[in-house]
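**Polypeptide and fold**
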Amino acid sequence: MNTTQLAKHYDTLTADERVSLMVAAHKRRDSAEIDRLEQAAPKALYWVRHDCGIRRGLVAVLQHSHAEQLVCALGFQWMYAFCLESFDDATPDPRWLTMDLFAWRLHVHREAWRLFSDEHDVDPDTLMEGQPGHNLVELFADQVDRSFEALQERLADCEPDTEPPTVDETIDSYRTLFSEIANPWS
């Protein structure tokens, strides 16, 4: 059956069938077909609690921040172990910079999450504690926090292309994500 014949039945498709056809149209780069499928979809009216957008936005930022923190903690740990294996006082391994950047980003994401949570008057630890791997993040974050001043000194001389993100840049990205998720529900 071609798309013209199928289009006559668009209003009877189930949600699963519609999404499957939209993915197939996307694969073919057929934006007109995607539009036709979207336009023919029945509309539904839902009642949600007035805080739905805020909760969804907070969860999106929480999950994003936690994922970033977990990646940074694991990257820090992996690079630390790798650099220790090849440690040589005479020739410092350039991979130490990579480890430092992971440590910096871990610190930045933790601080941005704390500030973002404060803006929304929620306890940052209460939400973060339930995330998978949170204990691992805390373990490596404690190591980073203990040596943060030395880390700042080492990263002060970074080349512009390896300059690490700031807390302000990171929290701005959190605010943007939050707005994109929360505002359509407001």
About this structure: DSSP finds nine helices and no strands in the chain. The chain has a mean pLDDT of 85.
